[in-house]
């Protein structure tokens, strides 16, 4: 009996030592992953709340370095090189520090390798990029500090800072065009219809050589003539129209409309009819 009592007491003591009360973090951790073109962009940060306080100019003083969040340093990670205000950030991880002011913020991308702490003074050798951006007042208050990636295009986006009644955005670019162009050149040594299709659509979207896009989309259509695809024919019509070949654009749109109707795809039926009407074909 004594052994049983002793064992019970030992287990109870062990449980008491290991037990921990769990409560929500005042500034919860957040991780955002966003693809911009062919680049993976990751943001890791903690999110403090307003909680009835005055944030900018008080809780976060003007003119002083701020860790841009709470707890550990806010980090941004690029899978490829990126460019901010003409300055190249090599692929990798950077801390984001800011110096808020009433009408503008300085935003600093820092790479001293440390995870915690805000430096009293920034060491120039670790400043990878530095830019000044305008602040914009919000017509409402945002309770929780928010970072986001927005205004996403093939080769650019913005890093958005949103808190209380302040919005700040830092534009950046990524080398999507160089990567896609290299990929196109590599694949074109032995391309299939989808390769021609993807290359042609990219050239159309980016405003590149439309005659080259026309050559590629025609090859894509020719190589898939035994199995016509209404979405490929749709792009052929748009590329021919932009290249000034109105008659062939109309022919491609009519073919796309036919196969879209057979497939029951209402979106492509609508788009083709709108284009044919615009080009005076119906």
Task: Provide a descriptive summary of the structure in words.
The mean pLDDT is about 95. Strand 8 and strand 9 form a beta hairpin. The chain is of the alpha+beta class. Helix 5 runs antiparallel to helix 6 (about 245-265). It has helices spanning about 1-20, 175-185, 195-205, 210-225, 230-240, 245-265, 265-280, and strands at about 30-35, 40-45, 75-80, 80-85, 85-90, 90-100, 105-110, 125-150, 155-175.
Defining key terms:
Serine Threonine Protein Phosphatase 5, Tetratricopeptide repeat, 30% strand, 7-stranded antiparallel beta sheet, alpha+beta, 282 residues, single chain, two-stranded antiparallel ribbon, elongated
Itemize the secondary structure elements and their pairings.
Layout lengths: L1 H17 L10 E8 L2 E8 L28 E4 L3 E3 L2 E3 L2 E9 L3 E7 L16 E24 L5 E18 L2 H12 L5 H13 L4 H14 L6 H13 L3 H18 L2 H13 L4
Helix pairs in contact: 3-4, 3-5, 4-5, 5-6, 6-7
What count of domains describes the coordinates? 2
Give the fraction of residues assigned to helices.
25-40%
Total DSSP E strands: 9
Task: Please tell me the overall pLDDT.
Answer: 93
Q: How large is the radius of gyration?
A: 28 Å
Low-confidence stretches: none
State the end-to-end distance.
97 Å
Number of helices: 7
**Assembly category:** single chain
Percentage of residues in DSSP E strands: 25-35%
| Class of secondary structure makeup | alpha+beta
Query: Would you list the SSEs in sequence order as H and E?
Result: HEEEEEEEEEHHHHHH
Summarize the main sheet.
7 strands, antiparallel
Please state how the strands of the largest beta sheet are arranged side by side.
Answer: 1-2-3-6-7-8-9
Molecular shape:
elongated
């Amino acid at each position: 009996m004594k052994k049983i009592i002793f064992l019970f007491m030992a287990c109870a003591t062990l449980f008491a030592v290991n037990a921990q009360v769990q409560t929500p973090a005042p500034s919860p951790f957040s991780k955002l992953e966003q693809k911009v073109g062919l680049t993976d962009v990751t943001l890791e940060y903690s999110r403090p709340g307003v909680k009835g306080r005055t944030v900018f100019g008080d809780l976060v003083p003007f003119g002083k370095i701020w860790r841009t969040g709470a707890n550990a340093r806010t980090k941004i990670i690029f899978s490829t090189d990126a460019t901010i205000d003409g300055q190249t950030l090599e692929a990798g991880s950077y801390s984001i520090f800011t110096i808020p002011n009433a009408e503008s913020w300085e935003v600093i991308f820092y790479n001293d390798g440390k995870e915690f702490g805000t430096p009293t003074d920034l060491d120039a050798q670790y400043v990878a990029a530095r830019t000044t951006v305008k602040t914009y007042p919000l017509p409402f208050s945002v309770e929780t500090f928010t970072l986001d990636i927005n205004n996403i295009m093939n080769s650019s986006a913005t890093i958005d800072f949103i808190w209380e009644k302040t919005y700040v955005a830092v534009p950046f670019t990524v080398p999507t065009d160089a990567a896609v162009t290299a990929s196109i050149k590599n694949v074109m040594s032995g391309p299939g219809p989808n390769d021609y299709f993807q290359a042609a659509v990219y050239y159309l979207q980016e405003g590149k050589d439309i005659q080259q896009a026309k050559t590629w989309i025609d090859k894509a259509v020719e190589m898939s003539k035994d199995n016509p695809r209404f979405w490929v024919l749709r792009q052929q019509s748009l590329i021919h129209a932009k290249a000034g070949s109105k008659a062939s654009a109309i022919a491609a749109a009519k073919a796309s409309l036919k196969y879209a109707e057979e497939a029951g795809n209402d979106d492509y039926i609508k788009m083709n009819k709108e284009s044919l009407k615009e080009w005076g074909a119906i």
